[in-house]
Write a structure and sequence with these properties.
Length: about 180
Amino acid sequence: MTLPETTTQIPAGTWALDPAHTEVGFTVRHIMSKVRGHFTDFEGSIVTGETLADSSASAEIKLGSIDTRNDQRDDHIRSGDFFDAEQNVSMTFSTTAVKDNGGGELIVTGDLTIKGVTKPVDLDVEVLGVEKDPWGNLRIGVEATGQLSRKDFGIDFNIPLEGDKVMIGDKVSLVVAAEAVLQA
């Protein structure tokens, strides 16, 4: 597959995410700031086909692995108020379409499932390149960004504030910065 508007050739194949060089992160509004966090336990793959239409990605992210750098907050997010991580162990993503967005960027549409609710999500994806690492493995780098409404997935806990405001925003910004290794 050749990336749109580039000369980078990407071999067809299956690429496994390298957890040591991948971050699955998010940002959400909290009162007057934004809380940032990430998940530490996940796996996924990217399949590059002969064409963009033949390409896909999938991931499984363990909800209990959330890390916002605050143990009390993380425990609350794992609770029934948010993820109910004991009953809903993982969220999953599976591609339904890959399109050229021009300028060497892609739009990857997929089904995201959280707490048994599946909704389509569009991710803006930049392919950062393909290179051999010092050990002879072929790696691909990508960064995906997108937004979702947490309420769409039944995650609607909140605390009212003065002036018809709420403590936690509905919009969640996603960023996945990943390296994946071509499988033999």
